[in-house]
From TrEMBL, chain A:
One GO-annotated biological process of the protein: transmembrane transport
Keywords: Cell membrane, Membrane, Sugar transport, Transmembrane, Transmembrane helix, Transport
Annotated family: Belongs to the binding-protein-dependent transport system permease family.
Localization: Cell membrane
CDD domains: TM_PBP2
Main location: membrane
Chain ranges of the ABC transmembrane type-1 domain: 83-280
Record keyword Isomerase present: no
Annotated Gene Ontology cellular component terms: plasma membrane
Membrane topology, record value: Multi-pass membrane protein
Protein name: Multiple sugar transport system permease protein
Superkingdom as given in the UniProt entry: Bacteria
UniProtKB/TrEMBL annotation, chain B:
Entries under Pfam families matching the protein: BPD_transp_1
Keywords: Cell membrane, Membrane, Sugar transport, Transmembrane, Transmembrane helix, Transport
Family designation: Belongs to the binding-protein-dependent transport system permease family.
GO biological process: transmembrane transport
Domain ABC transmembrane type-1: residue ranges: 93-305
Xref: SUPFAM superfamilies: MetI-like (SSF161098)
Ranges that cross the membrane: 30-52, 89-114, 126-147, 174-199, 220-242, 287-306
InterPro entries per UniProt: MetI-like (IPR000515), MetI-like_sf (IPR035906), UgpAE/MalFG_permease (IPR050809)
Highest taxon listed in the record's lineage: Bacteria
GO (cellular component) term, any one: plasma membrane
Subcellular location: Cell membrane
Species of the source: Jiangella mangrovi
Protein name, UniProt field: Multiple sugar transport system permease protein
UniProt membrane topology term: Multi-pass membrane protein
Length: 294, 315
């Protein structure tokens, strides 16, 4: 592989280009400023927030713990419940979507069946249908079935991930050689067994990527749960924070204490995904390129 | 990258169809359908059915008196003369025309820089620039809303240093740029990673050959790197187009912070949401959703068709 030679060559003589690094430094500040603001200001109370101190630096008393306690006890500790809901929706929806995408992508890549070309063309078309256009009719369908305002109203539509199927198809087609599958069959493995024991391990990088993308998509989905759910207790964390934010904006003076909870809540809500991305970065970085190299 | 992706279909298909053997054993067909089937069911239930249902609903109108009546394309005719819808659509089009080139140039520039610079600081920056993608759009909008805010944002302090008053990115005049900044911040890193991965997939011997032929760094960028990652550029353009035309989250969140600047009909998607859930006018809301989805689909399809020779994910 040529890339490894390239890596070795670069390692011997790291390319630094000082002006470009300075430029990167400026970009870095831009991309990190909102995070910095949230970290700094989640340590402040209402007086620190509105008292006119430096918005990008800590106030005199740093009260992370107090704000955290306030966040998790406010309104009967509903924030913890929202976090758990988000985890439930993201994992069930994300895992389900990934499992379906792996099966379908493999099926499209490795089997011939009547209607295969047509189905795949329809699938590619579906990648381009904006998912928010589906929310309103899905809501009305679900409301007829009595499914709105249940966890299924959020989980079931999240199982649909046409782009994930496309990525798995491209990957399975190239990463799982037909010869290997044929060899497994000759050795007496059934279709299920050659899929599980031969193909699946080879598809792992793409599976991690699709899983991560599906989980992020479900975790970050705002429109769908906003439309489907009316019960506070079922909200995912971002819909909950959005609701708090509406309340706090509506009563400007009375809502001042709510702002420190909202800022702390925003910080806490982004930590899980950041951890997921940082720990899994070796896996997703290569995988993201799958769709773009074609 | 070990992936070798080609335009041609898998070899076994080519072989068999060329020989004219169209009959695939029934058993293989069945197994194929067993693998694709579960997704197919979800696809029918949560994509085909809602779209068909939206189309159906959009053909009716519900009146206070007289109940529901069939109006055929009446809702669409109404939408395309409704200033609320047209203004929102016009905003989204203007926004895309500015946002997409800006976003693509920034992410391309960052990807090219990160492809050249190989220090550990560059590796760290790459990860940090990507980080906003992990942030829910709602939280991202909220963070920037805070930074823009007169009450607790830093803009006042920073501009105060120079004796100037801070621009208000939540005002009527500047909210366009306020939103532009939020969306760019959120997505540029994701696009950058896609482009960066594509750049890393280029065979570096090409650069050596070009250098021997006397090409400058600029020529290598413009004549080798950019042309070779065109498929990735097309892909991110499609993503950006789909995302921007259905703009909802960020303006919806900023609505509360920017009292009066952003109305409930600011974008077509917000208008559809308001019609459906605010006014219980599901027929009209469905018509707007369907029209919007249809327009996005047609735009993207035409675009992909026009660029198909340059290589796209729609092979």
């Amino acid at each position: 592989m040529t890339a490894s030679i390239d890596v070795a060559a670069r390692r011997r003589r790291p390319q630094r280009y000082l002006p470009l690094q300075v430029l990167l430094g400026f970009l870095l500040v831009y991309f990190l400023v909102p995070f910095w603001w949230v970290i700094v200001n989640s340590s402040k109370d209402a007086a620190g927030l509105f008292g006119g101190g430096n918005a990008l630096w800590f106030a005199d008393d740093i009260d992370f713990v107090g704000n955290l306690r306030e966040l998790f006890t406010y309104s009967g500790g509903i924030y913890a419940r929202w976090l758990l809901n988000s985890v439930l929706y993201a994992f069930v929806g994300g895992l389900g979507a990934t499992a379906l995408a792996v099966l379908a992508g493999y099926g499209f890549a490795k089997y011939r069946f009547a209607g295969r070309r047509f189905s795949f063309a329809v699938l590619l078309g579906a990648v381009m249908v904006p998912s928010t256009a589906l929310v309103i009719p899905t809501f009305i369908m679900f409301s007829g079935l009595g499914l709105t305002n249940t966890i299924w109203a959020v989980i079931l539509p999240s199982l649909l991930n046409p782009f994930g199927v496309y990525l798995m198809h491209v990957y399975a087609r190239d990463a799982v050689p037909d010869e290997l599958l044929d060899a497994a069959r000759v050795d007496g493995a059934g279709e299920a067994r050659s899929f599980l024991q031969v193909a699946l391990p080879l598809m792992r990088p793409a599976i991690v990527t699709v899983l991560l993308l599906s989980i992020v998509a479900t975790w970050n989905n705002y429109f769908l749960p906003l439309a489907m759910l009316s019960d506070n207790d079922l909200y995912p964390v971002i819909v909950g924070i959005g609701q708090w934010q509406g309340v706090a904006s509506a009563n400007n003076a009375g809502g001042t204490s709510l702002w420190s909870i909202i800022i702390m809540g925003s910080l806490v809500s982004v930590i899980p995904l950041i951890i997921a991305f940082l720990t899994l970065q070796r896996h997703w970085r290569g995988g993201l390129a799958i769709g773009s190299l074609k | 990258m070990t992936l070798q992706i080609t335009e041609t279909p898998p070899p076994y298909i080519e072989k068999k169809t060329r020989r004219g053997a169209r009959k695939v054993p029934l058993r293989e067909q069945l197994i194929g359908w067993i693998f694709v089937g579960p997704f197919g069911l979800v696809f029918l239930a949560f994509l085909v059915a809602p779209l068909a249902y939206a189309l159906y609903l959009s053909l009716f109108r519900k009146a206070m008196i007289g109940g529901t009546s069939f109006v055929f394309l009446g809702n669409y005719a109404k939408a395309f003369t409704d200033p609320s819808f047209l203004d929102g659509a016009w905003f989204v089009v203007r926004f895309s025309l500015v946002l997409i080139p800006v976003q693509m140039l920034i992410s391309l520039a960052m990807a090219l820089i990160l492809d050249m610079v190989t220090s550990s600081f560059a590796r760290f920056s790459r990860l940090m620039i990507f980080l906003p993608y992990a942030i829910p759009a709602v939280i991202g909008a909220l963070m920037w809303g805070f930074l823009y805010s007169k009450n607790f944002g830093p803009l006042g302090d920073i501009f105060g240093l120079f004796g100037a008053s801070a621009p208000d990115f939540l005002s009527n005049d500047l909210v366009f740029y306020g939103l532009l900044n939020i969306v760019t911040w959120q997505w540029a890193g994701y696009y950058m990673i896609i482009l960066y991965a594509a750049l890393q997939g280029i065979d570096p011997t090409l650069y050596e050959a070009a250098r021997i032929d006397g090409a400058s760094s600029w020529q290598i960028v413009l004549r080798i790197k950019v042309p070779l990652i065109t498929p990735a550029l097309v892909l991110i353009l499609v993503f950006a187009l789909i995302g921007t035309l259905q703009f909802f989250n960020e303006p919806q969140i900023l609505r509360d912070l920017a009292a009066g600047t952003i109305g409930p009909d600011f974008t077509p998607n917000m208008y559809a949401y308001q019609q459906a859930f605010g006014l219980a006018n599901f027929n009209y809301g469905s018509a707007i959703s369907f029209a919007l989805g249809g327009v996005v689909f047609v735009c993207v399809y035409i675009f992909l068709f026009a660029t198909r020779k340059r290589g796209s994910f729609l092979s």
